[in-house]
Structure formats: C-alpha cells, structure tokens
Design brief:
Rossmann fold, binds NADP nicotinamide-adenine-dinucleotide phosphate, alpha/beta
Length: 186
Amino acid sequence: MGNLSDLDRLYERIKRDHGRVDVVFANAGISETRTLDAIDEEHFERVFSANVKGMIFSVQKALPLMTDGGAVILAGSASGSKGFPALSVYNATKAAIRSLARTWTTDLKSRGIRVNVVSPGVIETPAMQTYLQRNAGMEDVLKQMTPLGRLGQAEDVANAVLFLASKESSFVAGVELFVDGGVMAV
Ligand SMILES: NC(=O)c1ccc[n+]([C@@H]2O[C@H](COP(=O)([O-])OP(=O)(O)OC[C@H]3O[C@@H](n4cnc5c(N)ncnc54)[C@H](OP(=O)(O)O)[C@@H]3O)[C@@H](O)[C@H]2O)c1
C-alpha cells in the first residue's frame, strides 16, 4: 500500500461503512531477488515503497479510527533476521518492519494499542507457488530445512494473526512471532 491516496480512500470507506477499526493486519508486501551489484534505484524504491512506506502509512492512517486497546499486526519475515542470498533490499525491509513494531509499541502505549510482528517462513501463497514453479527442486530443499518437514499454509499465518489480534494475547506486545515450522528456533 505505497499509494497514500488509495489508503485515504480505503479508510474513508471503512469510516463510512463501519465507523471504526479494531485490528490492523498490514500484510501487503512484495519480494524481488537482486544480487548486490544488480540493485538499482527503481528496485530499491519499489520494494521499500510497498513494504515499508506502505506499512507506515497503513498504520498511521488507521489510527484516528482505531479503538483504544486495539491491535496492530505487521507482516515481517524470517528473512529480516537472515542473510538469504540476493535479497538485500527485501531482507532490509523486513528488518525495518521488526524495528517499527518496537517503536510503535512505545508510541501507542497511551492508547493501549498492541503492536506485534508475525514473521512467516516458507508459506505456499501465490507468490511462493510462482517461485517454486520457476525453481525446480527448491520445494524439497525448503521442506528438508524445515523442522516440521512441510511448507506453511496461509491458514498457519492467519491463526497466528488471530492470536495476536485477540484478547488471548493481551499481555503480548512488541514481539516477533515466527510462523516457520521451527526454522528460526533450532
Ligand atoms: N509466502 C511466503 O513464504 C512469505 C514468507 C515471509 C513473508 N511473507 C510476507 O507475507 C506477506 C504476504 O506475502 P504473500 O506470499 O501472500 O505474497 P503474494 O501472494 O504476492 O500476495 C501479496 C499481496 O500483497 C498485495 N500487495 C503487494 N504490493 C502491494 C501494494 N503496493 N499495494 C497494495 N497491495 C499490495 C498483493 O496485491 P495484488 O495481488 O493486487 O498485487 C497481494 O494481495 C508479504 O508481506 C510477504 O513479504 C511471505
């Protein structure tokens, strides 16, 4: 959501139809591989705009509509803590997102709004399916490096987001919850 006028229209519509926002799950993001020597300004701006600028303004513009005590969940990635090859810019955006959750946890303290990050590992979404189709053999490699021995499904991430959005996580703030089949934990 790097386009700010789109965000304004979105929140105007939510205000008109629903009046308030209880939970923001800022999930939109793009990934593009580039080796360091091949990074150009357009690549940098495209990925940072979608992943970081979009996230900052998706949350900022929701705040006037947000109920005190609400929840913000940001889509990070295990990539933000790793050096996966040819992903400098993407990995850096996800590290930035992890940082935003720390600062916003303190910035939004007075309103009781909790901010957390959900960081997927390899999840079989449309973007990942395209990657796996283009890179024969990678599916088996990724399954083997995952302690739980499978790729994640969108439902695995959704369940973690539901937890962070709910009262069941009422004393959880500023964390990064990995949904990655154990990759980052072992
Ligand atoms: N899949 C994984 O293995 C994995 C792992 C770690 C982290 N993640 C993170 O999880 C999130 C979702 O990824 P995904 O795998 O579901 O990707 P995906 O299949 O490509 O879906 C991405 C979604 O984000 C939307 N989007 C992208 N750029 C946008 C923009 N500038 N403005 C508005 N919407 C935009 C897309 O909308 P359109 O369809 O309209 O383009 C699409 O609905 C991302 O933040 C990604 O970095 C995914």
